[in-house]
Structure formats: C-alpha cells, structure tokens
Amino acid sequence: MIFILSKILLFLIKPIVWVFVLLICATAAKNPKKRKQYLIFGLVLAVFFSNAFIGGVVMNAYEAGYPKVQKYDVGIVLGGFSGLNKRNNEISFGSASDRLFQAIALYKKGQIKQILLSSGSANLMNNEVKEADLAIKYLKLIGIPDAAILVENQSRNTVENAKYSIALINNNNPQAKILVITSAWHIPRAKLIFDKQTKKKIEYYPTNFLGETEFAWADCIIPNAGTLGMWELLFKEWIGLAVDRFRA
Fold this sequence. Notes:
2 domains, Rossmann fold, alpha/beta
C-alpha cells in the first residue's frame, strides 16, 4: 500500500500539475476576482518553476560533491538508470545512466573491485522485468567478468536498495569498503538511508549532475520546460528525506 501511495504522491508533487489545476480553477471560477487570482497565481508558479537560473542554483547547492579518491571493494550502483526496450528486448538507458557508466569507469581504473547492481522493478503493473538483470547482460557484453559483478534484483526503492545490498555484502565480505554510486541529487537521501542500515563508513560517488555552475543570460529570463522536471526531483527527494528521517 505504501508503495502505491508513493507513486500517487509522485504525480501530485509535479509543479506542472499545480499550474494545470490553478488554470482549471481559473476557467471554472464564476467570480471574476477569484478567476484573476487563480490565473495570476498559476502564471507566477509557471514562471518561477521554469526559471533555469533559480532551479539551477538550488539544485547545485543541494547536490553532493566528489569523495576523496581511494579504492573500494564494492561499488553499489543504485537503480533507476534504465529500462527495457520492447523493440529488441535489450536494455534502454535513461537520464540517470551515468550511474552505471561511472561505475564501469571506476572499475576500469581499479577504484572498485566489484560492481553491485541494486535494482528490481518499480513498475506497479509488471514487476517481471528486473533492471539489474538487464544491466548484467550489458556488463558482460562489454567484457566485465562474472567475478566482478554482484546482483541484487529485488529492491523497488532506495530503502530496499540499502537493506538488500548491505545484507548481500555482509554475506560475501563483511569487511568490504563500500562506495554507493548514484545521482548527485539523490546522495543526501541515499546517505541517510544507508547509514541507518549499517555502522560502516560508506562513501558516495555523485553522477549525472543537474545543477549548473555557470549560467547564460537566457537562463534568467527564458522559461525552460526541463527545469519543471528538476523541481519535481527536488520535491521528491525533500519529501523522501523528511519521511526517511523518521522511518525505522
């Protein structure tokens, strides 16, 4: 039930949904004053949440930085970076695919000995396709040996990523030094969750940064539809962070 409710919440926290609802209210309102208020409020929200400069500054301040360079026994790659291409039944990489590619680069450079793929299915209707299983095929295709791959394909969210991954590592190598590899904007919440699962010191490697360190003049005045999605990610992470602080 909690899993289903979380999916509903993901829809409700979209800024574009708020703007759409306000515009509907403006259209339906019979009182001219109310109609004007709804319309103005909707337009203000649309302008604010589509401003690339504001969104970029906030995101850049929230995203984590790189850890000190060292070597680790296991690099845990959190899911959400790919799906199934139904045209050829192969892996299809998404916007967070840098998580996997950076893990591969770290392995090739000798900074991690094993790649642990942690991801089952977050699909409400069809959970037969496991993301980790798709990623295994890709890693083998590019020459990563079986001995360097660990798999956890039952998790549906970050809490389960941490729970199942830590259990798997403890069974294989309790003294392992661990690096969690995930999106820069996801690290604050991932760190909170993983730290509740183990007393080990875990490091975190950020990927696919969304915040900008430099801006053009157009970012300040021209609306950007992609920034709406950036705010949606931030709201999702902030709400998740608040919930996970009180979760056992």
